[in-house]
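Before going further, learn to read the protein records used in this course. The integers have meaning only within a learned vocabulary of local backbone shapes. The record below shows the convention in full.
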Amino acid sequence: MPTVTIHQAKTHLSKLIQQALAGEEIIIAKGKQPLVRLVVLPEACPQRRIGGAKGMVTFMADDFGAPLKDFQEYTTWRPV
């Protein structure tokens, strides 16, 4: 949780808002005394929609879930 001064907050407000939108909590202080917490309003966060990416995958190879030959030595069990 970064702490910035009022002057820094005024100078870098756009950047601080972007940090808050990314989930970071910003404390604004006067000198060393914390005064204000900058957080995102709950209604400003978009709600996730289940199934919102339907139709995005247009092709999947038949061997998609097959083991990769390059990693076969790492996936086969051998007693020690």
